[in-house]
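Hello everyone,

My group is preparing for a crystallization screen and wants a predicted model to guide construct design. The compound we'll soak is magnesium ion. Before spending weeks at the bench, it would help to have a computed complex in hand. I've included the protein sequence and the ligand's SMILES below. Output in structure-token form would be ideal because that's what our pipeline reads.
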Amino acid sequence: MHAPPRREFADMATRVTGAEEMIPSRAKLCEMFRRMLRVRAFEESASKLIAEAKLPGVLHNCIGQEATVVGACMALRDDDYMTGNHRSHGHPIAKGVSLAPLMAELFGKSTGVCRGKGGSMHLAAFAAGSLGESGIVGSLMPVAVGAGLSARLRDTDQVCLCFFGDGAANCGPFHESLNLAAIWKLPVVFLCENNGYALYTPQAQSTSVAHIAQRASAYGIPGAILDGQDVLAVYSGVMAAVLRAREGGGPSLVESKTYRYCEHYEAGGPANPPIYRSEHEIAAWRARDPIRLFAAHLQSSAAIGEREIEAITSEVLAEVDEAVAFAEQSAAPNPSALFEDVFT
Amino acid sequence: MSYITYQQAAKQAIIEEMRSDHRVFVMGEDIQVYAYADVMEEFGPERIRNTPISEIGFFGAGIGAALTGMRPIIEGGFSTFLYSAMDQVVNQAAKSRYMFGGQASVQLVIRLNVSYATSSAAHHSDRPWGLFAQVPGLKIIVPSTPYDAKGLLKSAMRDGNPVLCFDDSTLLSSSGEVPDRDYTIPLGAAEIKRAGTDLTIVTLAATVGHSLTAAQMLAGDGISVEVLDVRTVVPLDRRTILDSVTRTGRLVVVDVAPRMCGFASEVAATVAEEAFQHLKAPILRITAPDVPVPFSPDLERLMYPTPERIHAAVRKLYMKWGRSARRDLDLYHDSGERQLPDGNASSLP
Ligand SMILES: Cc1ncc(C[n+]2csc(CCOP(=O)(O)OP(=O)(O)O)c2C)c(N)n1
Ligand SMILES: [Mg+2]
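Reply:
Good plan to model first. Here are the tokens for the complex, ready for your pipeline.
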């Protein structure tokens, strides 16, 4: 069973990365909370839309993984890069991209971030450093290495954050990318969103080690295991790796233990998945819902009051409604767009 | 002007570009001590970058560097190693710009040694320009001379798109006049290597030379052959091909690659669709057969178009469909998978 993280993961993160306590400002805490809500509300809305057959294609939602997605992205600077995978609505949202063009992309509209050519699995927002997402598992790991190499050759201190899943950790590109980044000491943070499953395959069945981060030692780089439901743990763990990369210390392999509540993908019709995980397991993870955990933390630490949480929540819900309205009202791509952007 | 080899000309293009633009750098296996050893001092190990045997890794890294403003050159080694990086080339390099709605540009050149006719067997012998021409988003250059190698590579490096440069290994040590100055040859501009009036041969890479030799022999038979070197498979200069066939009325396509869905098929289809009314003869493809490359030189020797085979096949075509044609001749039996480059079906079992 893919168990919710225990205490020692967080301890290990601190020990392995040597991260000091990195306390985000109050404004940053609010923004983290807002972005986590944005990711969830965006996907819940998309989920509803696809059930109503209003979206083409399929969706891979990350509901349940918001602390990992947002905690990691908030450790980046605006000019840092990131690469995603197929479960990547959250990544550009967490990097600060506005919702309307992302939602329009899910509709395949001309106003989408990719002008309707990419869709759910291939969002990209280059202006925000999002270098794209990919329907091919593991395939952007080498591309992230290249972004890190480019930062080095251009003599900037940009970092590239590379999101990938526990399933991707068993793909060939994982090995080549970690080794390349390690021998070249590139500013790349490899962040494994370990949600316990690759489609229906539990990690234990596909992976020879208990923790993906254990493989870091094979590349001579730091590895860390984070409580992926605790946005502050993710933030500080990833921040430690980002700072290290920025200062020329090279890559890290960070594993964030998390969980997706939803099915692997949604396509509108009934999901009918095989039985591959227990109700008990799902309930155990839901009991540590990242948004509820963070809201409770914010209130108990008196960082944000209940009233403010409510205000942020209703603002985010309104934003999502506006994004959907924008997408629905947007024009379909012009037929001429079929032939555009094959080449420069 | 210098008299240098194809390989030297290609390298000259890259080195000149590295001098004029700091974003240009080269990656490949063992290049520091081998192909680029003489310029290590000038550029250093950051810009002449040795890689481990990680084709997925460093091809992908080239794409990531290109997406973020660099202009990498990948020395990919044998063209067959390209398949190890197939996902990066086909799914990432070729599709990123389109899929991301024009946000991305992948200014990346990948050089590949198209080795064949060296008894290296099938894992080191292919001619995959047709295979990759099926991937929208990739440009493909196939130079046939040192002059073209430098000029086309310069255009490729400045093009802004992913470009595969297939270097025909049988040409790498061939020499020719190459200007020392900076010059470019536009992608998508075929060159008429020899003018003629009776028949057009469309070809590329080493078979340009073979076709020119064959054209000389055919002139002795009283057949005036125009030879056209496409120089780039993508973009393909359809205009020049169609203009030529409109004048000559007959088309032969020569290619060392396999036949099925290949470069020759594409040229043939284009002419059949667009210039049918000008055709005075069926179109003939002279290609390698659809078999993996065998090791034994006795077998491999049978595979490729040579000047003699081109001469023989064109002569046969012309006997039946030329100016004083003998239409009663039954010259073609089978144009299927056993077609050998002399225009005859193999009689082997
Ligand atoms: C190269 C490749 N193989 C298989 C697939 C089919 N596939 C899509 S997602 C997926 C599971 C990926 O698991 P993981 O990396 O853990 O990401 P998660 O879906 O759990 O977020 C598979 C097998 C694919 N898209 N690409
Ligand atoms: Mg997974």
